[in-house]
Amino acid sequence: MVTIRDVARAAGVSIATASRALHKGHLVAPGTREGVQAAADRLHYSPHRGARSLITSRTHSIGVLLPDLYGEFFSEVIRGIDQTAQGAGYHCLLSSARHGGPTLEAALRSMRGRVDGLVLMSPEFNGDLSKRALPSGFPVVLLNCPPSDTAHDSLTVANYEGAHAMVRHLAGLGHRRIAIIKGAEGNFDAAERLRGYRAALKESGLAFVPELVMPGDFSEAAGDAAARALLRLDQRPTAIFAANDGMAIGALYALRDAGLRVPEDIAIGGFDDIPMARYVEPALTSVHVAISVLGERAAARLFSVLEHPADRTPSRETLPTTLVVRRSCGSRGT
Amino acid sequence: MVTIRDVARAAGVSIATASRALHKGHLVAPGTREGVQAAADRLHYSPHRGARSLITSRTHSIGVLLPDLYGEFFSEVIRGIDQTAQGAGYHCLLSSARHGGPTLEAALRSMRGRVDGLVLMSPEFNGDLSKRALPSGFPVVLLNCPPSDTAHDSLTVANYEGAHAMVRHLAGLGHRRIAIIKGAEGNFDAAERLRGYRAALKESGLAFVPELVMPGDFSEAAGDAAARALLRLDQRPTAIFAANDGMAIGALYALRDAGLRVPEDIAIGGFDDIPMARYVEPALTSVHVAISVLGERAAARLFSVLEHPADRTPSRETLPTTLVVRRSCGSRGT
DNA sequence: TTGTAGGCGTTATCAA
DNA sequence: TTGATAACGCCTACAA
User: What CATH number should be reported for the domain holding residue A188?
Assistant: First the structure.
């Protein structure tokens, strides 16, 4: 491994001079700079970022901690974060904590000294855990986290409003038995979407029917299973609101498999509007979330925290959602 | 930031003793260890990984360099890599080089001293560039790269065989005008899949018809556009082989939009068998690639290189593909 | 069993 | 304009 020492020796200068020559904006004789530059090129020198960060205490990378890595939602979030990070000259150190529990704490520890800040997405309800694990004063942006933690900047999606709009729309189409396939237990987004569902039912003068509430976990398989269970009901629903698109697509699959037509026999709506939503058949009505923008925004906010570490009052931003009507819910959609 | 110095002071021992006490397997008096441990816990100490790696010259993280981050393919690859990495106690430093060109070299430089090795996916044809940019002796595993580089371990998908099987299958169903929507220009996977297409045509006694070869870039939009172009042909194809599922799904969308039925009017086959493939309507016949396994395997191989840095002869492994027949191609499929 | 001291590769602070 | 030299936080001979 070629170090700056080798470069300095090859150029016939001291280490200090070599270091200065390699950075612009320092006082170095033009000739010296050229010589050092040439030596560096010849030796294919590139600085050891770890060593550099030890003294500058800036790593130029951020940690990205996600609950899982499966599916288009996370993939889009990562894409947004990475895009912004790359634009700012940062790298992303990835970590998924799909096992839950102590992993968050462990993941945080293992990132100490490797990242300048953190984008943490953990929609689980154990808010105090994160507070305990998070080094106070460490720049963190929370993504889709319950609002319990007010010590950090956070970003959320308008879950309640989105779900509300979706269910209102379904009710407006005349549906009176509207089922919901819930998101994962203990998940903040899931809880908010359920809350929106209940509120919209009420406003529409519809009763909340427990048997129309199916458990789920955001996976296609869960949507599939939930839809099959709904079909076994004595009184089937005429519309299904799945708490995310993955489950909606799973449900679509199950209904088709059962020989039912969507939306003629049963209408379906999803949430997130993942890229795939418009391509399934029938195209999926969904609550649009600018997923990659969510990632971009989170990264941008983190960088702003990194720039101004002090006297910032933590902000909580909610990304708006919009209802996207397509064919799967039966009204005139694309 | 609490350092080991603080812990040592709090425990009333020297830095060296503190360091030893925090690692197991060192000779430390039981009482001392407890005291240090207690102090560390109390102070919420966690070691600065950057500083540690400076002396151990192991960062316990690997670089993951991908051409892009969009779509389920990359997302699944990342998932596979991360899973294996996490199991081995490693982190993933992510970087996408969607701008091409000098970025690869820059990305590599920026990772120097931050990663122990690299998983590099770059199916573009400029093989010599990577050879120039890659520090010789640096552990690298190549993913889906052209075979030009024999200095590094590499992993590929059986592109040729998969495409071949798909087209043979279509021909076997009686199709005589089989179109292809190609992958990105200058892409190795794309070229191999085209080669498989041509070979299968030949073996099936079918002529290679240039007008049935549409350009593409692996995106849904490209598949959509290509399908529309094919429909404008005087003699339409009766089957379309898209070089990946994203384009196949885009094509599906276009055909539906044009009022055609799949597979009755036109059959469609894709490649990759992304998770979504089975959920579209009609379910997509595709060439199955164990995408996340590809990532897992790449990571595993990299770790094996990290374990045995010397005297390893670079291996080139090809991941097999299998044809998955579903309804979109017209034969009895799921 | 513990402490002292040197060094990993860089950058930053001082004199010269 | 340049060169010693001291950090940064940690680990590890070596000595005590």
Answer: 3.40.50.2300
Residues A16 and A68 in one domain: no
Q: Can you point out the beta strands (E) in chain B?
A: 61-66, 91-96, 117-121, 140-143, 153-157, 178-181, 213-214, 239-242, 267-269, 286-288, 316-319, 322-324
B69 touches strand C (CB under 7 A): no
Residue B210 lies in a domain: yes
In this complex, do A110 and B49 lie within 8 Å of one another by their Cβ atoms?
A: yes
B198 touches strand D (CB under 7 A): no
Say how many CA atoms lie within 13 Å of B86 toward its Cβ.
Answer: 21
Q: Does B191 touch chain A (CB under 8 A)?
A: no
Per-residue pLDDT tens over the stretch A252-297: 999 999 999 999 999 999 999 998 898 888 899 999 999 999 999 9
User: Does the C-beta of B5 come within 7 A of strand D?
Assistant: yes
Cβ within 8 Å, pair A51-B54: yes
How far apart are the C-alpha atoms of A167 and A162, rounded to whole Å? Answer: 9
Q: Give this prediction's pTM.
A: 0.93
- Structurally, chain B folds into a number of domains equal to 3
Same domain flag for B310 and B228: no
Mean pLDDT of B118-124: 89
Read off the CATH number of the domain in which B19 is found.
1.10.260.40
Which is more confident, A101 or A20? A20
The residues pairing with A153 across neighbouring beta strands, listed in sequence order, are: A141
